[in-house]
Amino acid sequence: MTGITKIVVRHWKLLLAWNTVLLVLTAANIKLTPKEWTSKAELILPNVTSNLNADLGKLGNLKDSGVVFSQQLNPLKILSSIATSNEVITKVWEADPEKGLYKLKDFKGLFHVSPESESTVISVTVNGSSPEIATQRGNTFIEKFQQRLQELRTQQAMEQSEFIQTEVKEAHNKLLRSQTTLAEFKRSANLVSSEDQTKNLIVNINTLDAAKAQVLAESTSNKELAKLLSNRLNLTPSEAMRSVRLQENKEYQSIRQKLSEVEGSLTSAQVKLTNDHPIVKELLVHRQVLVRQLQQNISESTGNVAGVNTKIGDNTASLIRQLVLTESEATAMQKKAELLQSQVDNLRKTLKSFPSQQAQLQELQSQYEIAAGVYNGLVAQAKQAKLGAFSAYPTVQVLDQFTVEPQVSSPKVKLIVLGAIIASAFSSIAIVLFMENRNPLLNSRDIQRTKIPVLGSISPIKGLALKIQQHVGEDIEFQRLASSVSLMQLEKARLMIASATSGEGKTIITVGLANALINLGFRVLVVDGDFRKAQLSRYLNHQRRREQNLQLMVVNIRPGLDLLTPTVDLDKVSEFVARGRFEECLSVVQDSGNYDYVLVDSASINMTSETTLIATAVSNVLFVVRPGVSDRNPFNNSIEQLTRHKATIVGLVVNGVETNTQGYLYDSQTVESN
Fold it and tell me: pLDDT higher for 308 or 671?
């Protein structure tokens, strides 16, 4: 924590300036930010369902349950996007009384729409420069939002209707074509229902086979009966038929009747008369004439076919009729059996053709059912098109009207102050890190890397001891440092106390080391090598005078301790040191005063150019560093410069660190020394 404090203190000016700027900006932000009031309202999405259910045949059912919520499709988010769309905000902006104060992009930021989780409620907040403006702006927003929803519903319904009507016409034409093709195939193939027709065909075939068998049996029976009658009559059916026809011939019957009468008269005449009697002769001639007429009639009736029985009676005629009828029925039954067999063959042929026709029928039937399902679905969607627009863009109702919060919503002073504090903290840390990255503080590892021995660590000097010069050096740390210096073989007994930058305590170290050497019995000359600021002279209460010419003033501070303050023109300091005149002065004073040690309190190496030049006169350097004050880069640069000028760094003194030893003077105050 001490190290962090030192780092912060090290950059306190920059941090103070930056945080002052942040403070001013924060105050200006609070002061200049326009005041705003927030108006809030809630919208609700009712449960709207159309419950569409259309049977599409083999394609299944078409169902529409209306608004559906899911992670991928949330109507509340869709409505929120529509509400904050440029189309809605632009219409609200055009009707807003403060239209000229906002650009459209900035005006859009006044509206916040957020759907609530696990509910159908949408929260709406609107900002305004006054409560009235906020409420009016919110009401206009709701109105334009409702109008936009209605526009979207109308547009969707029109687009769907146009699209579906075209599709319905195409589907209807396809359905008609499928229906016509199916009907023509059924008509050409005489196929309506293959299963029923197959059953009917099998039944018909079986029925016809049974009928044919019965007819054949009857035909056989009639043939046998006809054969029996034919044998009994000794006539074939055709002969019997001709005999019956002859028997039914009236002319033949008339001639035969006359012939019977003539023969009866002839028989009577022959009994009474002789053959030569004219009556008998006349009857014989008349009989011959009738016989010739009878033969002629038989020839004409039967065609001179043999086997005609001209002497059949009524009983024989009845048998002949039965024979003819039986033979005719047998022939008819045979014809009927042949017709039945022909029908059976045709039915069996039709039955064999059913499989191929059935496949084609099923394909045509499937095409028809699919076309019917598509048509039914499109018709259902066409009926649903108008109502379906509410599924895509549901009705939104106002649950709570716009109400304005009494307190001002912007600017939020607490948030601004908190943001400023956070910004100050992070920016201050960034500044410190940036500055430390550019020039970090010196640490123990940096000292160790130089491989320069540390001759001592000096505790912070109390305020009272700092004011009394003779007490500086009485601490044991200075005694140890003086002991270490006394053991060194210093060239010309000269030692320069230097540091990289100011504020590291080299002047105090010089005085403390001088007092410690005096306590060891040595005579010491301290030289104020800071020709510009003369820090050592001021600390020893000696005011150096500015002279045009070089003046060597040796002042006795206390027994064993003298002060040399060369007075040189500031414009000629570098020349004074570079030409060796400084070394000459040291030699003159050192020889005349018989000093054991000469301690030169130089200026900061990185602040002036003459310090490294003094190293040519005083080659031994005691380098002072102070944790929390010394910087790494100036330290490394100073070591490099001294090395380049062939100076010998005899050791390091770490100033301002707490040690376990206690001094002889006590005080609660510690101060920094230049």
Answer: 308
- Which range (67-71, 368-372, 413-417) has the least confidence? 67-71
CB distance 275 to 281 below 8 Å: yes
Residue listed under structure tokens 């050096």: 473
Poorest-pLDDT segment among 104-118, 133-147, 231-245, 451-465: 231-245
17 pLDDT tier (thresholds 50, 70, 90): very high
> Considering only 230-239, 444-453, 659-668, which range has the smallest mean pLDDT?
659-668
pLDDT of residue 73: 63
For 561, phi then psi, to 5°, come to -135, 120
| Residue 93: alpha-carbon gap to chain centroid | 32
| Per-residue pLDDT tens over the stretch 188-203 | 766 655 566 677 778 8
Cα distances from 250 to residues 55, 254, 260, 301, 598, in angstroms, run 83, 6, 15, 11, 196
pLDDT digits (tens, 9 = 90+) for 383-438: 766 666 666 777 888 888 988 877 777 677 788 888 889 998 998 888 888 877 77
Q: Is the sign of the CA dihedral 344, 345, 350, 354 positive or negative?
A: positive
Q: What is the pLDDT of residue 446?
A: 80
48's CB contacts (< 8 A; 6+ apart) are 66, 67, 390, 391, 394, 395
How many of the other CB atoms lie within 10 Å of CB of 597?
23
- How far is the C-alpha of 564 from the C-alpha of 586, rounded, in Å? 9
Q: Quick one: pLDDT at residue 20?
A: 93
Contact of 123 with 76, CB cutoff 8 Å = no
Rounded CA separation 121/128 (Å)? 23
d(CA 544, CA 565): 7
Residue 153 backbone zone (phi > 0: left; psi -120 to 50: alpha; other: beta): alpha
Dmax (CA) for the chain in angstroms is: 239
Residue 358: name the closest of 206, 202, 185, 200 by CA.
185
Mean pLDDT rounded to a whole number for the chain: 78
- Nearest CA-CA partner of 640 in 674, 615, 665, 671: 615
Residue carrying structure tokens 């007075």: 567
- Residue 429 three-state SS: helix
Neighbours of 248 (CB within 10 A): 11
Give one DSSP letter per residue of 548-600, joined into a string.
SS-EEEEEEEETTEEEEEEE--GGGHHHHHHTTHHHHHHHHHHHHHT-SEEEE
| CB distance 571 to 466 below 8 Å | no
CA 193 – CA 210 distance, rounded (Å):
25
Two tokens at 145?
């939002």
> Residue 135 corresponds to which tokens in the numbers above?
């409420």
User: What is d(CA 379, CA 386) in angstroms, rounded to the nearest whole number?
Assistant: 13
Tell me the whole-structure pTM to 2 decimals: 0.46
CA angle 218, 224, 228 (to 5 degrees): 145
Task: For residue 653, give Cα distances in angstroms to 144, 376, 450.
Answer: 80, 102, 13
Report the distance separating Cα 53 and Cα 293, nearest Å.
99
Q: State residue 525's pLDDT score.
A: 93
Q: How far apart are CA 499 and CA 241, in angstroms?
A: 168
Minimum mean pLDDT among 142-156, 207-221, 287-301: which range? 287-301
* DSSP-based three-state secondary structure for 412: coil
> Amino acid letter at 385?
A
How many Å from the N-terminal Cα to the C-terminal Cα in the chain? 24
List beta partners, residue 122: 43, 115
Whether the pLDDT of residue 555 is over 70: the answer is yes
Contact, 221 vs 367, CB < 8 A?
no
Can you give the length of the chain in residues? 674
CA angle 393/394/395 to nearest 5° reads 125
CA-wise closest residue to 412 among 8, 37, 3: 37
